[in-house]
Amino acid sequence: MGISIAIYRLFDLIMLLMLVKIFLTWIPNINWYTQPFRFLNDFTELFFAPFRKIMPPFGMLDLSPILAFIVLRIVQVGVFKLLAMFGL
Questions:
Q1: 0.90 exceeded by the pTM?
Q2: What is the arithmetic mean of pLDDT over 37-47?
Q3: C-alpha to C-alpha distances, 7 to 1, 13, 18, 35, 88, nearest whole angstrom
Q4: Torsion of CA 65, 69, 71, 74, to 10 degrees
Q5: What is the rounded distance in angstroms from the CA atom of residue 34 to the CA atom of residue 32?
Q6: What percentage of the chain has pLDDT greater than the value 90?
Q7: Where does residue 55 rank: exposed (0-12), middle (13-18), buried (19+ CB within 10 A)?
Q8: Nearest 5°: phi and psi at 38?
Q9: What gap in Å lies between CA 28 and CA 9, rounded to an integer?
Q10: CB-CB neighbours of 67 under 10 Å
Q11: CA–CA separation, 50 and 41 (whole Å)
Q12: What residues does each domain of the chain span?
């Protein structure tokens, strides 16, 4: 497996964790201060927080994860193509 494929899969894993976090926010009685939820929350906030500064929530609707997914996907494809171009 090439480095480019491994990094592509790493981006897929990050986006999967982001999706799991989004679905878990619909469950009201999750304690985000216990493991593994704390790790998931802290990790995904690394990606969501910058986009919340750009696009604040509209009432109870937080659209920043959509922007985070779009940007992360663009970066994923760009990095993959760049690494593949160098034969990695």
A1: no
A2: 95
A3: 10, 10, 17, 26, 10
A4: -170
A5: 6
A6: 72
A7: middle
A8: -65, -45
A9: 31
A10: 15
A11: 14
A12: 3-85
Phi then psi for 58, rounded to 5 degrees? -100, 95
Cβ contact 55:63 at 8 Å: yes
Contacts 24+ apart (CB under 8 A), 41-44: 43/17, 44/17, 44/18
Place of tokens 């171009």: 85
- Rounded to a whole number of angstroms, the distance between the first and last alpha carbons of the chain is 10
pLDDT digits (tens, 9 = 90+) for 63-78: 889 999 999 999 999 9
